[in-house]
């Protein structure tokens, strides 16, 4: 009897300990099949959404079907932007994306012209964004957006606050767009959607109905084209300004003038020229920066402009912005050559 009492005391102690530590979540303690409704963070999220007018039963029933996705967590921990520029560049600068970009441009030329005229963003940059993001709509993502956002909000501590915010925006988005089933939408592992891969908050703020059918549908090429241009416009795209140009360094320059990240341009071109920096081409921009990348042939230097920084507002990696810039130039050059050959009857 005494042994039984001691055993019961130990069990009771363990139960109390587990209950007192319930608010401290560790992924290692939760089975992959665990229901997210058991997470304190999820319970707090549901309370917040109820205060915003969502039905509690609807939220509980929805999240009861969501399970953690380890592949999503692995992808989030190892994004392509971690690769050095020499390995990152070939992913996007290849014949398939260039040729398909010209085809996409030819197919949607009217919408691209309208977007450029309205927002001042050249067609090649709109096309390049869509090419980098989804190969012109061929790969808009296979992940359940709700599962992606929930997994990252609950189980990716490094950016949990960001993904909790995006999860809230997602529910507000589907309510605004009149979608009854939050499980239907598919996107990237990070919950980005459509040809331009807009996250939920960007979808709500910058997606537009560019074809006039009454819906903001980012899986529709025309709406995607207008929305990408609108995104750049609202992030400060300067009509007629340049993006970047390669540079040569004539001598040592102060280290604080060279950047390896997506910092906002703060220099004037004459200052760089005073330090012997030579622009290998035209760069028309109010402010400039000096970017260092490690390419296949060694260190590369680029003078970047305000519009380069605008591209990094789409993705905060300078390697991403450089891939968009270079792909845009390749597509533009190929399209121009195609037009010349067409005139010659080639």
How would you characterize the overall build of this protein?
There is one protein chain. The chain has 346 residues and is of the alpha+beta class. It contains 15 helices and 7 strands. It has helices spanning 2-20, 40-51, 56-63, 70-77, 85-92, 95-107, 109-119, 123-134, 145-155, 160-176, 200-206, 221-234, 269-274, 306-312, 318-344, and strands at residues 143-144, 186-187, 244-249, 258-259, 277-279, 288-295, 298-305. Strand 6 and strand 7 form a beta hairpin. Helix 4 (70-77) packs across helix 9 (145-155) and helix 5 packs parallel to helix 15 (318-344). The longest helix has 27 residues, at 318-344.
Q: What keywords describe this structure?
A:
346 residues, alpha+beta, two-stranded antiparallel sheet, 7 strands, 52% helix, globular
In short:
This protein is α+β, with helices and mostly antiparallel strands and 346 residues long.
Q: SSE layout and pairings?
A:
Blueprint: H1 2-20, H2 40-51, H3 56-63, H4 70-77, H5 85-92, H6 95-107, H7 109-119, H8 123-134, E1 143-144, H9 145-155, H10 160-176, E2 186-187, H11 200-206, H12 221-234, E3 244-249, E4 258-259, H13 269-274, E5 277-279, E6 288-295, E7 298-305, H14 306-312, H15 318-344
Parallel strand pairs: 4-6
Antiparallel strand pairs: 1-2, 3-5, 3-7, 6-7
């Amino acid at each position: 009897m005494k042994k039984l009492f001691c055993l019961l005391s130990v069990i009771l102690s363990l139960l109390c300990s587990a209950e007192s530590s319930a608010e401290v979540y560790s992924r290692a303690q939760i089975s992959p099949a665990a229901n997210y409704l058991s997470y304190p963070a999820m319970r707090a999220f549901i309370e917040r959404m109820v205060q915003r007018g969502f039905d509690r039963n609807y939220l509980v029933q929805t999240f009861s079907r969501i399970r953690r996705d380890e592949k999503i967590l692995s992808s989030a921990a190892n994004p392509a932007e971690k690769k050095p520029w020499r390995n990152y560049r070939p992913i996007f600068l290849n014949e398939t994306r260039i040729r398909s970009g010209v085809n996409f441009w030819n197919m949607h030329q009217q919408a691209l012209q309208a977007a450029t005229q309205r927002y001042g963003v050249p067609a090649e940059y709109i096309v390049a964004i869509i090419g980098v993001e989804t190969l012109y709509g061929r790969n808009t993502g296979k992940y359940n957006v709700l599962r992606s956002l929930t997994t990252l909000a609950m189980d990716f501590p490094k950016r949990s606050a960001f993904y909790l915010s995006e999860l809230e925006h997602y529910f507000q988005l589907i309510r605004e767009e009149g979608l009854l089933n939050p499980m239907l939408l598919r996107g990237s592992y990070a919950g980005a959607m459509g040809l331009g891969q807009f996250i939920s908050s960007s979808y709500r703020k910058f997606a537009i109905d560019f074809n006039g059918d009454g819906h903001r549908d980012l899986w529709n090429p025309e709406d995607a084209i207008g929305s990408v241009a609108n995104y750049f416009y609202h992030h400060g795209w300067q009509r007629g300004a340049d993006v970047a140009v390669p540079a040569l360094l004539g001598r040592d320059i102060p280290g604080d003038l060279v950047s390896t990240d997506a910092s906002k341009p703060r220099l004037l071109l004459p200052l760089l020229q005073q330090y012997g920096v030579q622009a290998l081409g035209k760069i028309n921009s109010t402010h400039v920066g000096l970017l260092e990348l490690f390419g296949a042939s060694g260190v590369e230097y680029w003078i970047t402009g305000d519009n380069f920084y605008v591209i990094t507002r789409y993705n905060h990696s300078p390697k991403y912005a450089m891939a968009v810039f270079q792909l845009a130039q390749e597509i533009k050059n190929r399209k121009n050559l195609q037009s010349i050959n067409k005139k010659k009857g080639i």
